[in-house]
Fold this protein.
Amino acid sequence: MAETAAQERKEQPEETPPSSQSGGQAAQSELSKKTAHERRQKPSGAVRIIVVDGMGGGIGEELVRRIAAAVPNAEIIALATNAIAAERMVRAGADRGAAGENAICQSVKLGDVIVCPIGVILANSMLGEITPAMTEAVLTAPGKRIILPLQNDHVSLAGIENLPLSKMMEKAVEMVKAASNE
């Protein structure tokens, strides 16, 4: 009997998901892809900005969105510890994205400017997502590093004003803009 039910399921044509029937999310996804594709058309010599993030990618997503608006001719590459964070940054406007230790270690070298939260330069932070190799790669990459000094329970930064995250991002974007004009 179980075999008969399985055969019946195989014989039935697959239904089209509701989102593609109505054009809802599928159309939005296509629009996002076109926008990202259009952003890839950069003038030669454009500044290349690397945004590195992990965990859920929320900080990286917002950084990409703000940097894309402030430096429209820049090429933005999203590097993340995991695919979810990378995808969020690409959807926010990054031209390309990659995830994982090797992607970060190899691609961070490509940036003229590297932007990330402080956890990216602290080995074993972000609940262990940041490996020592990632930390070393970011710290030894030739690009200018702009670090968001996020403070948490196990890291305190002496002499650093504890600003709201939105203000830190604002300052970071100003620094990226200045660095892209150098």
Observations:
- The CA atoms of residues 1 and 7 lie 10 Å apart.
